[in-house]
Design brief:
The protein has 3 domains: about 50 residues; about 80 residues, DNA polymerase, domain 1; about 170 residues, hpI Integrase, Chain A (Orthogonal Bundle), CATH 1.10.443. It has 16 helices and 8 strands. The strands form 3 sheets. A 3-stranded antiparallel β-sheet has the order 1-2-3, covered by helices on one side. Strands 4-5-6 form a 3-stranded antiparallel β-sheet, with no helix packed on it. A two-stranded antiparallel ribbon has the order 7-8. A hairpin with a 6-residue loop joins strand 1 and strand 2. The chain starts with 5 loop residues before the first strand and ends in a 5-residue tail after the last strand.
Length: about 400
């Protein structure tokens, strides 16, 4: 009977020792070389015989796979089931993990490797949020190994985000919003992006940059004064674009914003499909699509040099700090300050849980601080405040000081 599993030796680098390894073809037709990690002849022969029996009976344990091989297998299995951007993020994270810990077998990955990878990301210059995003991507890949019985448990399961002071949530105050809109109006060029309208709709609806730039006229309901966030298919007129977190939603527009959109539509050529993408840019994108030079990733921000142009508007409006995404934060903070519940803000924002809404978007507005100040002043006028005003003032030595001489 033909031997299915062969026992081979592998010498060490110094040539003084060797280890045994098994060579065979698994049930998927893939050639395998498994190092046994020792040079005990009897033990190696028993392991060879065991693997031989497993192959002949069709009952075999999952074959150990190295990280690179495992990720390649995962990528091939899940392609088409998840977004390309998700695969790209996981691919970057897995490649960087392998650079840090080496292309080791999945079952040899330990908790300490996660700590090493986290530190390597921080040393690379990544922010804590970016580093943990990569850790989360690797966590998901390793969880697939658990589901496929290639790992008993996820070694990164208990790896937590480092605790750092929460960053201040930046929002634009009313004066900055007026200056921003005025600067956008003054910097507008014929045939270019209508920045004033884009900023106004962003402040009104809280939509993300990609959601705004991928809005078509079919998404705007002038009668109901609403704007819809919906994915786009790859058609002759539109390019493929996906919603973040797959959250379709309908958002309100004000009377003023609706009138601005109506005037903007009247000024656009009839073949304009997108609300904000200029016709010249749209035609350029169509040519690139025909040449096969346009990807789903490009559709996230179809307007080129977007950040640089917005930074110029900030400078023109004498606003020292800010980014386009702060328009979304400003809108959501206003919603919350004007009586919308936490759940309402979460659903309008398209978040899956309120923790995200609260952590990154809801700033304490200055009018709330002023209300708290008034409440504190009112409390100080009661009997407690009177006693506090009459209390003796002590110097550093504990002696009473005449308040009139202070």
């Amino acid at each position: 009977m033909k031997e299915l599993v062969r026992l081979k030796t592998r010498p060490s680098r110094d040539g003084k020792r060797f280890t045994y390894r098994l060579e065979y073809v698994d049930d998927t037709g893939r050639r395998r070389r498994i190092s046994l990690g020792h040079y005990d002849r009897r033990k190696a022969e028993r392991q060879r015989a065991q693997r031989e029996r497993e192959l002949r009976t069709g009952i075999s344990e999952p074959v150990p796979m190295k990280l690179g091989e495992f990720w390649e297998d995962c990528r091939n299995r899940t392609r088409g089931q998840v977004r390309e951007s998700t695969i790209t993020d996981r691919d970057t994270a897995m490649r960087q993990l392998i650079e840090v810990v080496g292309d080791i077998e999945c079952e040899k990955v330990q908790y300490k490797h996660g700590e090493q990878f986290m530190q390597a990301c921080l040393d690379r210059g990544n922010s804590v949020a970016t580093a943990y995003k990569k850790i989360s991507a690797v966590k998901r890949v390793l969880q697939l190994a658990v589901l496929r019985d290639q790992l008993e448990k996820n070694p990164f399961k208990h790896l937590r985000r480092p605790k750092i002071p929460e960053q201040e949530i930046h929002v634009y105050d009313d004066d900055e919003c007026h200056r921003l809109l005025r600067a956008a109006r003054e910097s507008r060029r014929a045939g270019g992006l209508n920045w004033e309208l884009l900023i106004a709709v962003g402040l009104c609806s809280g939509m993300r940059r990609g959601e705004l730039l991928n809005t078509t006229w079919r998404d705007v309901d002038f009668a109901e004064q609403t704007i819809r966030v919906s994915p786009k298919k790859d058609t002759g007129a539109t390019w493929e674009w996906h919603i973040k977190d797959a959250e379709r939603r309908i958002l309100p527009l004000t009377d003023e914003i609706t009138q601005l959109l109506i005037r903007h539509q009247e000024q656009q050529p009839g073949r304009c499909v997108y609300v904000f993408v200029p016709l010249s840019r749209h035609d350029h994108i169509q040519r690139r699509r025909q040449q096969g030079r346009w990807t789903t990733e490009d559709g996230k921000c179809p307007v080129n040099n977007f950040k640089r142009k917005f930074d110029k508007i900030l400078k023109r409006g004498s606003i020292d700090e800010g980014e386009f995404h702060d328009l979304r934060r400003t809108c959501m903070t206003r919603w919350f300050a004007n009586g919308l519940t936490e759940f309402d803000v979460m659903k309008l924002a398209g978040h899956s849980d309120f923790a995200t809404t609260h952590r990154f978007y809801l700033a304490v507005r200055r009018d709330l601080i002023e209300k708290a100040r008034v409440a504190a002043a009112a409390a100080m006028t009661n009997d407690f405040g009177t006693r506090l005003a009459r209390a003796p003032i002590l110097n550093g030595k504990g002696l009473t000081v005449d308040a009139g001489r202070c």
